[in-house]
Here is the input.
Amino acid sequence: MKKLTLLFFVILLFTNCTKEVGKEVYNLTFSFNTGERITTECLVYEKSKKYKSSTAEQVLASESAGKIIYVEAQFYTTEIWGMSFLKTEADYLAGISYFHAPCANASFAAGQNVDIQGVMDMYGSYGRKWRKYTVEEGTFTFQWTNAADYGETNKVLTGTWTLKRK
Here is the structure.
């Protein structure tokens, strides 16, 4: 009976410890093909439960929970950016979202400090060890929609992204 109880405890421990729950900080880096780099800290949510982030809670409470992860970052003190990623059976993450972030000395904006806004779509192969997600060379496309605010025309920017737990 003790062996059965121990086996049950081990199975319970391993099944509950494989979901990311927004407690560990990750580094999220966007490297534009034009040379700019935006790095921020973020949290990754995977398990449907109560969170301080009501958005993460709502996203993961949907019927597709288990097939998505939610990444949340804060580029500004008053605004939180979040993106839902679909997890494919081939270990890829794919997501699309509105994106708003500061970018200093942007070569795509004649060296200006800009506040870029637009639509970001991201795709990348991920690795996973226990709860920890890692994306080494994901790709993104960013449709810069507020370029006119900086005397530029709207542009499509591309690059790579990484996601690593600190």
